Amino acid sequence: MGIRIAVPSKGRLREPVLRLLEAAGIEPLYSPDATRALIVPTNWDNVSLVYVRPEDIPAIVSAGGAELGITGLDYIEEHGGEGLEIVEGLGIGRARLVVAVPEEAPVESIRDLPDGVRVATKFVNIARRFFESHGVRARIIRITGSAEAMPRLGVADAILDVSSTGTTLRLHGLRVIAEVMRTEAKLIRGSHVDPQDPLVEVIVEAVRSVLRARGYKLVLMNVPEEVLEQVVEVLPSMSGPTIARVEGPRPMWEVITVVPEDRLAHVLVEARKRGARDILVLSVDRVIP
User: Fold this and answer.
1) What angle do CA 186, 191, 194 make, to 5 degrees?
2) Are the CB atoms for 150 and 62 separated by under 8 Å?
3) Any bridge partners for residue 121, and if so which?
4) CA distance 267 to 67
5) H-run or E-run covering 120
6) Which of 98, 69, 81 is nearest to 186 (CA)?
7) Could you report the per-residue pLDDT of 208-258, keeping only the tens digit for each?
8) How far apart are CA 12 and CA 183, in angstroms?
9) Rounded to an integer, what distance in angstroms lies between the CA atom of residue 60 and that of residue 66?
10) Are strands 117-121 and 138-142 parallel, antiparallel or unpaired?
11) How far is Cα 200 from Cα 3, in angstroms, rounded to an integer?
12) Cα(213)–Cα(48) distance, rounded to whole angstroms?
């Protein structure tokens, strides 16, 4: 049986998701933009990508239209999550779901919003739960496009929408008065799918191996024998550095280790001070424990 992975056909998640799958070795055989195809085969046998709107992915996976999917936690929460299982957080597409009002509005927090306040959003279910939890009787206005213009058009008094940097809100004269939730892309699996299906396991592990590799560098160095112990003292590693003798006129060892990127500069300086030389730093594509 083949596996279908539902991926965003548009929006801020599309390119990061496709890059992640490419790093995991899963690539579409052709671009859907050239053919308008919604289901595209990949370089993996029996694996295809289903291009759909990110907000539709939870419903499609839940209904069995795809076995796996990648979309934002905000869309999963809006759907309700029934018939779905979150397999992995992917660390991409991070953003906040916020409530914003016009700059000139005499409102500082959710508590200041009057009953009957009009809120434009495509996250109707999330909005309803959020305002009810704060005791605000809001009139939720469902939209499908950009929410930022709604207050200026007189359609709404506030919006509930996704914000990554806040730039778009500021450009439209809006300011945030509350954070509803934080979101990022999630790999999801339909509840009807056997998690131990061999092909599903391979896909999930391929994605996880890429995620594990993020933030790490492979470091190789030559270390004279007389300073080997001192250099190894400053080297982080997963299970321990790999050490192999270097054939040469002077007793020398090659040391290989994996270093978190945020510690890399410090480790390299310390290792060199202690006698390491010929240092190479390489990217890590996958990590499989």
Assistant:
1) 100
2) no
3) 142
4) 43
5) strand 117-121
6) 69
7) 999 999 989 999 999 999 999 999 999 987 778 899 999 878 899 999 999
8) 13
9) 6
10) parallel
11) 7
12) 25
